Amino acid sequence: MQRLLLLLVCVGLCVGLKCKQCEEEGKKSTVTGGQYGIKTLLGCNTYYDEDGKFVADKCNTCTYTYQCSNGHSWSESEDCY
Predict the structure, then answer these.
(1) Residue scoring higher pLDDT (70 or 81)
(2) What is the pTM of this model?
(3) Which terminus of the chain is less hemmed in, N or C, by CB atoms within 10 Å?
(4) What total number of domains does the chain contain?
């Protein structure tokens, strides 16, 4: 989970996160949010592979909500642990 949050922070900071609706309308805005609000709570299969690396099936779905300074909001979902 911490790796996932770190990845999201890096994606937002390294790649940039913009409101798609504002971009389509030619507007500028700031974006807040990104903490997951919904996570399914299925038990995931975890194990250590032949090389001793930890493996966890991504059997849950995390949904992240964002808002922009122009009032637009959207959600994005991805598989997670």
Answers:
(1) 70
(2) 0.61
(3) N
(4) 1
